[in-house]
Amino acid sequence: MNDIDAWVWWLVGAAALGIPLVVTAMPEFGMLAVGAVAAAAVSALGFDAVIQVLTFVVVSVALIAVVRPIAARHGRQSPRLATGVEALKGRQAVVLERVDGSGGRIKLAGEVWSARALDTGRAYEVGQEVDVVDIEGATAIVI
């Protein structure tokens, strides 16, 4: 055991921390593994065990304190690229047949859609531009 340099043990520890990272998909293990690699580098430079352990702790804690909140924030964000009917919400359309609370037709994204007014007392005439606020089935709800 004494024949193996400390930096090798740090690399073995980093590899050992990589196993639960892959198995559990917990990024904290990866951050600890990076701390172990940093400690291996410090050991290879000839620093003593106290400096090696401090390097491991400081690098690991810094990564967990900085990277983890950023990753959590990105994980909570919804995708920026809307697809399907979600991509049609908020777009403008042109009225092809009078649209009121009971129905009508619009041209939306190059296609003809059935539509109805959000405000049932309001009507939109042919050629008018309307905004799509929702899609219910195959009917666009417009204002």
From TrEMBL:
GO cellular component labels: plasma membrane
Subcellular location: Membrane
Domain NfeD-like C-terminal: 85-142
Alphabetized UniProt keyword annotations: Membrane, Transmembrane, Transmembrane helix
Pfam families on file: NfeD
UniProt keyword Membrane, yes or no: yes
Ranges annotated as spanning the membrane: 6-23, 53-71
Domain of life of the source: Bacteria
Membrane topology of this protein: Multi-pass membrane protein
Name used for this protein in its record: NfeD-like C-terminal domain-containing protein
Classification of source organism: Bacteria, Bacillati, Actinomycetota, Actinomycetes, Kitasatosporales
